[in-house]
Amino acid sequence: VNSQTVKEAAVEPGGEVVDVLLEGRMYGRYTQELGVYAKEEAARLRESGQRRSVSRTLDLLEYDKGRCAKCRTQKWMYGGLDSNVFLQYLAWVTYPVVLITFSAGFTQILAPQAVGSGIPEMKTILRGVVLKEYLTFKTFVAKVIGLTCALGSGMPLGKEGPFVHIASLCAALLSKFMSLFGGIYENESRNIEMLAAACAVGVGCCFAAPIGGVLFSIEVTSTFFAVRNYWRGFFAATFSAFIFRVLAVWNRDEETITALFKTSFRLDFPFDLQELPAFAVIGIANGFGGALFVYLNRLIVQFMRKQKAINRFLMKKRLLYPALVTLLISTLTFPPGFGQFMAGKLTQKESLVTLLDNRTWAKQGIAEEFDYIGHSEAWKHPQVNVFVTLVLFIVMKFWMSALATTIPVPCGAFMPVFVIGAAFGRLVGESMAAWFPDGIHTDGTIYPIVPGGYAVVGAAALSGAVTHTVSTAVIVFELTGQISHILPVMIAVILANAVAQSLQPSLYDSIIRIKKLPYLPELGWGHHEKYNIRVEDIMVRDVRYITLNCSYRDLHNVLLTGHLKTLALVESTESMILLGSIERAQLQALLSLQLGRPRRLAYIRERAVEDKKRLSVVSNDSSENSSHRASQEVRFQVRGHSGQRCKKCFQPFKAHYFQSHRKKCLQNVTAEFCMSSKITEWEEKQLDEQVNFNNCKIDPAPFQLVERTSLHKTHTIFSLLGLDHAFVTSIGRLIGVVSLKELRKAIEGSVTVKGAKVRPPLASFRDSGTSSSENEATELHKLWDRHKSMPLPREHTPSESDEKSQ
Amino acid sequence: VNSQTVKEAAVEPGGEVVDVLLEGRMYGRYTQELGVYAKEEAARLRESGQRRSVSRTLDLLEYDKGRCAKCRTQKWMYGGLDSNVFLQYLAWVTYPVVLITFSAGFTQILAPQAVGSGIPEMKTILRGVVLKEYLTFKTFVAKVIGLTCALGSGMPLGKEGPFVHIASLCAALLSKFMSLFGGIYENESRNIEMLAAACAVGVGCCFAAPIGGVLFSIEVTSTFFAVRNYWRGFFAATFSAFIFRVLAVWNRDEETITALFKTSFRLDFPFDLQELPAFAVIGIANGFGGALFVYLNRLIVQFMRKQKAINRFLMKKRLLYPALVTLLISTLTFPPGFGQFMAGKLTQKESLVTLLDNRTWAKQGIAEEFDYIGHSEAWKHPQVNVFVTLVLFIVMKFWMSALATTIPVPCGAFMPVFVIGAAFGRLVGESMAAWFPDGIHTDGTIYPIVPGGYAVVGAAALSGAVTHTVSTAVIVFELTGQISHILPVMIAVILANAVAQSLQPSLYDSIIRIKKLPYLPELGWGHHEKYNIRVEDIMVRDVRYITLNCSYRDLHNVLLTGHLKTLALVESTESMILLGSIERAQLQALLSLQLGRPRRLAYIRERAVEDKKRLSVVSNDSSENSSHRASQEVRFQVRGHSGQRCKKCFQPFKAHYFQSHRKKCLQNVTAEFCMSSKITEWEEKQLDEQVNFNNCKIDPAPFQLVERTSLHKTHTIFSLLGLDHAFVTSIGRLIGVVSLKELRKAIEGSVTVKGAKVRPPLASFRDSGTSSSENEATELHKLWDRHKSMPLPREHTPSESDEKSQ
């Protein structure tokens, strides 16, 4: 056995050499100027923000170095002070607390949207909902710097969610930049496709796993997937992963391109068939564990929210919560203290490397007698069994990770969960190795059990259970560079998913609910006959519309009250026949054209010619009236417009104001007052004119449903086509509108009301206690009761629905 | 170097041992009773047809054994006759010719639908088009037996397409069987989902590659993919792959579950960074190769079709073409003849195993001096260089595979292409090894180049190029059990795809075009502004509809003339307001209820009572008239109905006939004639009655478009929702209908007419010569010209469109 061990050890990648090299180079540069470093990094990132995948990888590499350096600094401070335990403790604790507090504060000040994972937000954005503030440059800077500090603290935090968000930010900024040059980048649906590819890049370069990255991002962000995007995701993710790993080679960290956490299990006999039940046990246990993790995470958030007293105190001192949590966690992992029983001195990466080790740590309950090389010795404690260390590690890290991911810094939960899963797998593997010291295989050769393989299975299963994905299987293969355990991993992941999906929503869906993001939930499958709700039950009957012969004043009023992105155009109020839909921006353009600068100037010039002929004194009263009118109009324009167009609208108005002012200075003050009053009159006249739709872009085929379309069909159409709203027509006449909001309410409502539950594929026995939509349900309940008590409307008479729709 | 070689050889899986074992066991059983064996196998398969994945794997295993046995028999015959070259040749050639001829004949007689790959058909079926005869039990039997024989012949034929088809057949038969018990299996959309999972199973258990299988089947069959199906695919594919490999263990072929073509490349340094250009070259070259393969394959088919003389002759002797092709190919591979220069004596599987070998065959142009163990010696020829052998192998196999896949037997092209790609990769790898005998890596250790890794890259790239998929990368990892070459493989596959997609359609799309299957082509991306065609340009204005107050006679007439699955229900012919749609089957049920047995019997009883009172003689003339009427009705019922319902409809009619006959025997013949005439009268009266829609299932929200909906939007909606047809309405009034057929014509037409091309994502410079739709284009061309010369219809007046729609 000994010779084999030595051979295996020789096969190990030269981890130690790299570490020493890194340490040598880093000490000089990084000691305390973290702030300076962060600024530098941000500047560098800003420069390179245009070339996505390259910048993606550069920042990754930088951050990787940064983290190593910081951890090492912490260790060095801690190591250099080994004469005094108290000083050691201070050094151990100060670092993370300072970093996390800085990260939380920085993020809070610059862009609070950068907090958290980012995957739930991306899921919502890819669904077609606009969450504008999540894709700005500010958020980008906050996310990058905040993430760097948060990860540097050594807390059990992940990076895959933030990476997805950062990649998407890069893509969004890139396409905003490219749209300056016009062309295809102006297309909005193209932007969504770019974001989808960016998500794949994010995961792909986080783990150097292009295939797993693409699949994971699909599973996590999409409901329906266009296969043509798949190709693009692969393209982007492959190049990002490639450049990520190439830089490691150029940097002399690696000799060639290899996997990030390369394992070296034996190839000829990876596992015995009779070990499969053990793998299945890992899968099922991790399924329960994953559900528990999601539940625990949500519980902590809800507990913090409910406790009003704590909440009020923490709201005042926003940085106290992160600092306290960090203090607690780092105190518990302090190596001379409790940390010695749970390999506290290892970073997340080191833990994972040791857990995936191909050597067995224990044989028949006693630690094996080979030298624990490098980090592995952290798991060995003179008094305590390796099993106890592992159990403590799992239990402590479990709640620590669930707690740490609630800190308001940019962070994910994938990596901590992955490590816990690996530890659990290792525990089962070590137990199996202790139980069957000569392996299970019966005939001929002795093949000892490989606990590292169990760790791989456990990692994939737990992270799959928490995120409700199967592609974690692919990620572990790419991460470890070995695919020999494919069947155990697949079986464990599928079982873990089956269990976890039936107990809890995925972590991302849970966050979507906690954050109340506008995401359309899934309809349960096989239950759709139970959703006997029709569009007429949920539609909003009070539709904002414009008629073919409406005046600009009507347009003005409609724009002030509505909230939908497009407005219905009907033939007349009497017939209500739907002709098409017009975008809000188009209508605003029409309005500003009518009241805009050129026409005003023309009018003023005309007036000026007239005024030269006669001079009259006007009362002060009328001027007040005019200024009131003007302010009113400004208010309307500010409220009615949004974003870019707002500025554009203001421009003519302001320009007009100053222009007229300058001109009028030549004349006397009273004439000016007179002018203002005239302008007001002119505006009133303009508003009463009939709208000319000639140059307006009308969508002749807006999406229509009929009143009796089922909820299930509506949901399918909305999710497939990524609709925001659809008009409801009855024999061609507009009678209502359904938007995402109504649909969401109806679906969430039906969870508690109708017995048909909203659930993922395998959720056959999830308790309904997790949904917090009881209050929203009542409304639908009422609707439904009303509907039932009424006779089913076979045919609406025109007069009836006309009344309703007005 | 020598000691290393020995060690590596020892690591090789015990292929030889297994071979010997197999040989020993098989000789007794299989010599010539192929027919008996095939029958037995079919019987066994028929029994086990219900448990899909198990049966799937069983048959796989059986077939695997079968193939081994047959190849071995062929070799044994050939080996035993080494005294006489002519006899050897006869033995070598007879086997494949007999097997292929049998396969072609059997398939032709039983179910011609079983010919070919099956993936194009599945793609069409998953799109929502019903190709009923492709999923019958007959096809299943023909496909299984035909495939077994075709593969046993040793021709360069694949099995992945047929496996997909067989798995889908299993799923279809299974769900047909399960629907007897009712429940969710009756749902049609559920069946489509089952078929999607079955496709994944098919690929998954063909290569023991669950992940690659799922991805490949998605890429090959779908345009838009529901992520919830993904999970199911994984579930099914994992278990099929698991059981496939477990059976190999139980069968003592393998010690434990491993990859199908396990490689053993070194893990620590799989390849150097500077080798990447070589991998990229493989990718690009294979891209061109893949396009050439598709082109060659289509060329052969079209050539055979065009040559009228050959064609007529071959049509008479259907089995001659397969026999001739087989004879040609097996003559060329005859080992003592030309076959000695192209490793002709190896089967496809053996070739692949040797090509993926981790040893280098040549160093500096000279064959290395280690013993070629086992099959590898086939590549070594005393006079000829290894490079020449490889080049000959690639060139010969290339056209042979393209030719062989046109034989009308159940076969795929994936595996032959895969082997050719591996050979090309090996060629590049061996050249690199000869060029850099000590490897490229510059500092320190010598890492010789691994030509086997190049073979893996080449295999993935060529098969990816031919099928236009990226997931072949995943398939090779699962097939070889090693993932160390992930980046080279990904890069090569992406480059190969980029080249191939820009030159040719995928093999499956090419077959879809050749077979003229009703598949909706893709719209090019980025070009959709150019498709300025609207629904009104392509819709059929002559819609079949029924009105609320129509008579049964109208129903009858509409059913006789229409072809759509559902019919529009409008308020009245004048208003044409669309109220909903009714399925054809529902209407047929209405009609048979009106003219059906119970009502007939009631009428006859009534008449009988009346007739007892009076006896009158009726002229022969009226009886003739009646029989004419009856036959007319029968004809209508046969034409109008389909499948199950047809029988049901006949039943009451026949029953009535005999019933009335029996009854009337009591009375005299003239009374019977009178009766018939009365019944005819009664039927006429029934047909004139107004239809009662009360118990009819009306879809209140059929899919509607408006006349100005763009072609792009229509295409998106059709593909996303899998529609068959949609009604076109103008302000609520039905004015036309668009079905898949019209849409397909419009899209294909626009290839040549409008300049906007129908192409896959990367097809930027494909020549348009591949499309054979010039004749279809003219129609649209005319339409378009007409449309242009006419003023754009702003608003159809009611009278105008009413006229058109009738």
From TrEMBL, chains A, B:
Keywords of this entry: CBS domain, Chloride, Chloride channel, Ion channel, Ion transport, Membrane, Repeat, Transmembrane, Transmembrane helix, Transport
Protein name: Chloride voltage-gated channel 2
Subcellular location: Membrane
Major location category of this protein: membrane
Bilayer disposition of the protein: Multi-pass membrane protein
Compositionally biased tracts (Basic and acidic residues): 778-806
InterPro entries, alphabetized: CBS_dom_sf, Cl-channel_core, Cl_channel_volt-gated, ClC
Pfam families in the record: Voltage_CLC (PF00654)
The species this protein was found in: Sander lucioperca (Pike-perch)
Region (Disordered): 762-806
GO cellular component: chloride channel complex; plasma membrane
GO molecular function, one term: voltage-gated chloride channel activity
Residue intervals passing through the bilayer: 163-182, 194-218, 230-250, 276-298, 319-338, 386-407, 414-436
